[in-house]
Design brief:
The protein is an all-alpha fold and 246 residues long. 76% of the residues lie in helices and 0% in strands.
């Protein structure tokens, strides 16, 4: 890790900053951190490397919005999400780094496409079903994509929009979901050798940057015009995802 170039250190610091921003009221932004880390660290290793940093960001989000969580919408998801995580864990055990890079890139691109579709349908909450089978599909997809690529954010946005939650409840419910699911993933990633003592020490070096990102998100980022901000994030994340194919 000490052999990283200055540009690689900068990219990882940017990824940590983005994680903090995404957990402080800017949902969807976190998907940009995935290709950033996967372009510096071997793709398979990056899925576990980023995980403790996501948990740190989730803790910040829960501390800020914990009282707004709507648990009845989460209990429907958890059994299916656990199943999705286990399937993703098995898949990670079978695949090599050369296969994981394009897979992560593909997942990110699909999630970005889902996000664009969501933005072009402002009446989404009126057209998405809310039955138990919808929660089952969302839970399985969220569990699989978060284990494989830490990229379940857009899926959860779709689900929570369908549940018609107000902004504070939206963020609080999402924060609790990802804190519990990301914490649940740690033993699986450790079993695969993707979370190690060495990686945790390096994570600790980036934790202050995550906290800085959360502070910026609370104080400044919300002042940026939303449509400009989201378009920029989508372009950068797409570019990063495409890079993983080469």
């Amino acid at each position: 890790m000490l052999e990283f170039t200055s540009s690689q250190w900068l990219m990882m610091a940017a990824g940590a900053l983005i994680i903090g921003l995404s957990k402080s009221g800017l949902p969807g932004l976190g998907i940009l951190a995935v290709p950033l880390f996967a372009s510096v660290i071997p793709a398979k290793d990056s899925t576990g490397f980023i995980l403790p940093m996501l948990v740190a960001g989730d803790i910040i989000g829960v501390v800020m919005f914990r009282q707004h969580a709507q648990w009845k919408f989460l209990w429907k998801l958890f059994p299916w999400t656990v199943a999705g995580v286990i399937v993703g864990w098995q898949a990670l055990g079978w695949l090599a780094n050369a296969q994981i890079r394009p897979l992560i890139g593909g997942i990110v691109l699909v999630m970005l496409g889902l996000n664009v579709w969501r933005q072009r349908h402002p009446d989404l909450k009126d057209i998405i079903p809310t039955g138990w089978w919808f929660a089952a599909i969302i839970g399985l997809l969220a569990g699989f994509t978060t284990m494989m690529a830490n990229a379940a954010g857009p899926i959860m946005i779709i689900y929570l929009l369908a549940m018609r939650l107000p902004p504070a409840a939206f963020i609080g419910t999402s924060a609790w979901f990802f804190l519990l699911v990301n914490s649940f993933k740690i033993p699986f990633s450790a079993q695969l050798g993707l979370v190690t003592l060495a990686s945790l020490k390096f994570n600790a070096m980036l934790f202050p940057v995550i906290a800085l990102g959360a502070f910026i998100g609370i104080r400044f980022a919300r002042r940026i015009p939303r449509h400009i901000f989201e378009r920029l994030v989508q372009i950068l994340a797409a570019a990063g995802a495409v890079k993983l194919f080469f």
